């Protein structure tokens, strides 16, 4: 689990994903939280992450996290990594906050927690992300984390933060 000021980022295990695939409201008693109707942002990704974890259970922690707003006891978003570090030591993050919790700095907080956790592992040299060119709020989140543009292609902007440029806690 990754803890930030307002959030607990709970690493999904196969049981979490099985529950989501059957009925997302099943997470309520499992986690002791409310699950908003607007969650998850990308429901189609849950079966993909489930299959990845089933085929490589040792990769728990390098896939999906559930973002729990501690004070409100609500599932406020999801995100995580697109797998373990690659050969160059790079991991890619992604994140989504439910509409009713946007505009509160939670995306920056969650993404910062993911970045800090990733860079605490010696084999991670950099963290990457992608945004749509017109995604002003996601771009601002990445800028606050200290990420820098790293090219474009396939309709997305790429971002990167090298280990030596990371200032833990500097963005929150």
TrEMBL record:
Gene3D superfamilies: 3.40.630.30. CDD domains: NAT_SF. GO terms for molecular function: acyltransferase activity, transferring groups other than amino-acyl groups. PANTHER family: ACETYLTRANSFERASE, GNAT FAMILY, PUTATIVE (AFU_ORTHOLOGUE AFUA_3G00765)-RELATED-RELATED. Residues 15-168 form the N-acetyltransferase domain. It holds the Pfam family Acetyltransf_3. The keyword Membrane does not apply. Keywords: Transferase. This is Acetyltransferase, GNAT family.
């Amino acid at each position: 689990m990754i803890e930030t000021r307002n959030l607990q980022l709970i690493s999904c295990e196969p049981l979490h994903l099985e529950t989501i695939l059957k009925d997302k409201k099943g997470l309520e008693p499992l986690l002791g939280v409310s699950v908003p109707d607007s969650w998850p942002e990308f429901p189609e990704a849950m079966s993909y992450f489930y299959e990845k974890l089933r085929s490589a259970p040792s990769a728990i922690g390098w896939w999906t996290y559930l973002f729990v707003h501690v004070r409100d006891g609500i599932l406020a978003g999801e995100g995580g990594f697109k797998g373990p570090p690659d050969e160059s030591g790079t991991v890619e993050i992604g994140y989504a906050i439910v509409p009713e919790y946007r505009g509160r700095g939670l995306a920056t907080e969650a993404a910062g927690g993911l970045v800090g956790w990733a860079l605490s592992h010696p084999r991670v040299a950099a963290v990457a992300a992608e945004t749509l060119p017109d995604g002003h709020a996601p771009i601002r989140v990445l800028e606050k984390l200290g990420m820098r543009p790293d090219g474009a292609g396939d309709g997305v902007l790429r971002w990167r933060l090298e280990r030596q440029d990371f200032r833990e806690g500097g963005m929150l």
